[in-house]
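FW: tagging you since you asked about this chain on Friday. Here's the raw sequence from the shared folder, copied in full. Didn't touch anything.
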Amino acid sequence: MKKYVMVWFSVGAGLIYTSCNDLLEMENDGRSTIPKVFATKGGIGAYRNACYLYVPVTHYNRSALCDDAQEADGNFANSLYSYWYGNVYNAASFSATDGNPWSSYFEGIRKCNIFLANIRHVVAEDVMLTEAEVSGMSAEVYTLRAFYYLQLIKRYGAVPIITEAYTVDHDYGADTRAPFGEVVKQILADCDSALARPDVQRGFSWNVFYGQAGIMTRAVAHAIKSQAVTYAISPLWNDGGYSLEEATKITGEALYQCLSHGYELFEDTPKPAIAQNSYALYFITRPDEQRAYDKETIYGRTAVEVWSSAGMPSTPGQLKAGPCPTQELVDSYEMLATGEPPITGYRDEQHLNPIINAASGYDPDHPYEGRDPRFYATIYYNGAPRTLPAAGAPTVNTCVGEPDGITVADRRTTRTGYYLRKYNNWKSERDNNADGAVRLLRMAEIYLNFAETAYQSHGPDEKIEIGRNYRFSACDAVNAVRDRAGMKIFPAGLSKEAFEKKYRNERRIEFAFEEHRYFDVRRWKILEETEHYLTGMSITQNGSNLTYTRIGFERASWQEKYYLYPLPQSEAIKMRTHTGVNWQNTGWE
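HL: got it, structure written out here
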């Protein structure tokens, strides 16, 4: 049985499209068989590029599917978000929310399997490659396969482990869904296989060289390991596959390796006319994986257009308000002077009656003053300077009746009284998109993943040796991130329970609108607590007096089934037919 690959090239751009089919046997009509593809330097490079076609693209839109935001489209019938908030989706229609990652990532895994099965037989000098280049491409593809499996288990939980390309006589009846921890072991094994390859420029390097944007690196492999094992010891996924100590060793190794190879938090202080602080500047700066300027980004993705797709009606050319930050997110930003949360909870289920922390310094009549600097870099609130520098600049007015105020009948206006500022360069407009990009992997996550495993295994304050001349406690790791933000450090002596509460809030703030929150509230098993009731702030103005009134939104998307994606209905039916076992996730049958 012949296997063939169709390969299209664009001069100067490399591979544009590649597809594989090992089910049909056809005469050679100009298309190449798999052995012929792996017999040439160009064919090998093209197939390697094809393995990259499934790398995920992060976006801020997912924030409206958790408690970070309420989507402006949520009020409109038949919109994605109205279906989500109303619990209308079923397994057959769920693909509208995120495409079809089950099929997409398994297709990527299949390409990776074919590449790895064939590259091992390549003699480097026969195809005008060096041994380092062949080894390096293998490492990239091992990392890609690990990346795709990580995306699958985050969404579906248990999935089959497939490390060889299926043949036409494959017995599908023998397939099983491997437990989460078992899949994580495969992810870590793939990353370790990649990291065992030489660290040289033409091999598997720490560095991204000219013309290599988007390539897998050693830092990516460590970041994948760090995230995978952090998820593996989370309440939703902890099946005993990893002990807390093992998880801490792995996240500590990732932190050590990245720090010792030049990765660091972005701390450049911007000029006042550019951005409010270093956190704001980082997110309006395009990713620089070569680390000439941005040494925090481990893996960056494409730029976004907040000004038009999540902007304000007062911006010419704006199309919609998109995901509008919730009051719960606003409440999570601590006070700068004290490091205390302004709101410690709510007296009612609907979150309309907050419990104010008198020790924090919060003034409910001036609710946006004196907050964590990341608040000002992330959210447009009533009175926020629309442009920089702030002195004399126009300010945002979200009061009822104003162009940027709350309405329910226009997708261009906020539902919550807030708009997204993160990624938005105030200079962006119809003819000049200067907005930033959502990072897929960055150094702040490596710090916080270590903190999450370390406080559980060793407590908040015990210093752990993670590598030569590097000793960190969980508190130290969180404080590195807080110090960059300009916030007071966590005090020593916190109990595990107190540390966990502050840590989870810190993670929410640092990663707002970066997709983490969607998965965090699920793996921590707090979906009902965070998803059922959400609020915004309606502001009315009478002369110079402002009245703040919390308004509520109820969602039906907090139920147990929303912890996981459903398998595509056709796949669930197919596998039940083959195996006699119901593969569908709970609640989606």
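FW: The two ends are 38 Å apart (CA to CA).
HL: agreed, and The longest helix spans residues 131-156.
FW: great, closing this out.
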